[in-house]
From TrEMBL:
The lineage of its organism: Bacteria, Bacillati, Actinomycetota, Actinomycetes, Micrococcales. Pfam families: DUF1501. It comes from the Bacteria. This is DUF1501 domain-containing protein.
Length: 464
């Protein structure tokens, strides 16, 4: 395909849209600030020039165009490619109040109705046979006149009683597809399709960069898609105990020595990636070797999530500059035989988050916000395989010393609706995330508008 010959800088909000039909006339640019389609070189160059001139003193940090902008513009043959991420023009001084954000992904579509149950809802009670939760269960905890906390989440009772746990009901994403893959992409991007970065990447662009190797990382087997497009290296760490060079070589030519030599002698992305990873490994091993004893009698479960939350607590306390971290809990896709499997997952979730809350203590939790995200909820009706299928609205937990300690999301309308198999979505999850950023992290509304373009958040009431 032919590319538009125009000036392109990462800060210019121009994104190329192209077709694979062979008809180059159908290719065009989109100005992601205005949504306008751009179909000529002259128009694209004019916008690029205008964006350049917005910087005080001409070009600021874009001074690679020394020698005269108009001359370079007229001679430029730099090309736009779809793989280049559109960037955003934030104010000169990014903000943030130092609060750590921990995003817990419940992968597979958690059945929120089995976690926070509308125990007196007639539709729920009539359509859940083996997966129904009730107040008569040992350990069930009544939250209010509508909802109860499942017995398996008893680890979160202390936080609720202290007012440090808020719960939003009927949370979901716009354009819910009921597809794991599609919903991951939609929620991770949280922006129109022409925006190629994840919302956490845009959050990092909008907040103070402390240059720490642990400023942002995924405590999982892969980097969260919400980090995609960020300029700096994002670490993926399965567990601190395993985050080290492993080799069976007996001689001096170990993997560690080879990797160190690469970092010294190889430039570019590979060298930078190796250097970052080795540096992070050394710091993690120093922390791990020092030993860690959770405080306040906290007892983490011996699970992947429990280990993850324990590691996160440890590195926060080590003052390594953590700002944003994600952690995964998988296997929530409970189409068959849901009861036992979900109960195990729910207990792991409640015990892990409860141990983290207890370990951090009241003072530290003033500077931490934990939020849960799942790609969709599950059907209100149990299927013939004694499980539940892909649904719509879900529940989102927010754990923090800044929490309001309430169930939020507007007036509960019940589960009986035009589509009886769904808990209807009443709160867009971006409103939950926006409130976490504004009231939790101290991000102003102008920056939130850039993190969630073309979306106006509504107050949810999760954080004070």
């Amino acid at each position: 395909m032919k590319h538009f010959k125009t000036l392109f800088l990462k800060e210019d909000s121009l994104h190329q849209v192209h077709h694979h039909s062979g008809d180059d006339s159908r290719n065009f640019l989109v100005d992601t600030r205005t949504g306008e389609n751009i179909r000529s070189f002259d128009q694209a160059n004019s916008i690029a020039c205008e964006r350049l001139s917005e910087n005080a003193g001409g070009f600021g940090r874009r001074s690679l165009l020394k020698g005269g902008a108009l001359g370079v513009l007229s001679l430029s043959s730099m090309m736009l490619h779809e793989s280049i991420y559109p960037r955003y023009a934030y104010a000169a001084e990014p903000v943030g109040d130092g609060t750590v954000l921990v995003v817990v992904y419940l992968r597979g579509g958690a059945d929120g109705l089995s976690l926070v149950t509308p125990y007196n809802d007639d539709h729920y009670n009539a359509n859940r046979k083996t997966t129904r939760k009730s107040l008569s269960m040992n350990g069930a905890y009544k939250l209010d006149g509508t909802f109860m906390l499942a017995p398996e989440l008893s680890g979160l009772k202390k936080a609720w009683i202290a007012g440090d746990l808020s719960i939003a009901h009927s949370v979901g994403i716009d354009n819910n597809t009921r597809s794991h893959f599609s919903n991951y992409i939609i929620s991770d991007r949280s922006a129109p399709v022409q925006y190629k970065t994840g919302w956490l990447a845009r959050l990092l662009d909008a907040t103070y960069n402390n240059e720490s190797q642990f400023r942002a990382f995924s405590h999982a087997g892969r980097v969260s898609g919400a980090f995609y497009g960020h300029d700096q290296e994002i670490l993926s760490i399965n567990a601190f105990s395993d985050f080290k060079v492993s080799t069976s070589f007996k001689d001096t030519e170990t993997i560690s020595a080879v990797a160190s030599r690469i970092s010294r002698n190889v430039g570019g992305d590979l060298g930078a990636s190796v250097k970052t990873t080795l540096g992070a490994m050394n710091q993690v091993q120093e922390i791990s070797n020092a030993g860690y004893k959770p405080e306040n009698g906290a007892d983490y479960p011996d699970t992947a999530l429990g280990t993850g939350m324990k590691d996160i607590a440890q590195i926060i306390k080590a003052n390594k500059g953590v700002q944003v971290v994600t952690v995964d809990q998988g296997n929530w896709d409970t189409h068959r035989g849901q009861a036992d499997r979900l109960n195990t997952l729910a207990k792991d979730l409640g015990d892990s988050l409860g141990a983290f809350y207890q370990d951090m203590g009241a003072l530290r939790m003033q500077n931490v916000v934990v939020m849960t995200v799942s790609e969709f909820g599950r059907t209100t009706v149990e299927n013939q395989s004694l499980g539940t299928d892909h649904g719509a609205g879900n529940f989102s937990f927010v754990l923090s010393g800044k929490a309001t300690g309430r169930i939020t999301g507007g007036s509960w309308g019940g589960l009986k609706n035009d589509d009886d198999k769904d808990n209807a979505i009443r709160t867009d999850y971006r409103s939950v995330a926006a409130e976490v950023m504004s009231k939790g992290l101290g991000v102003d509304s102008a920056r939130i508008a850039q993190i969630f373009p073309e979306f106006t958040p509504k107050p949810v009431g999760l954080l004070a």
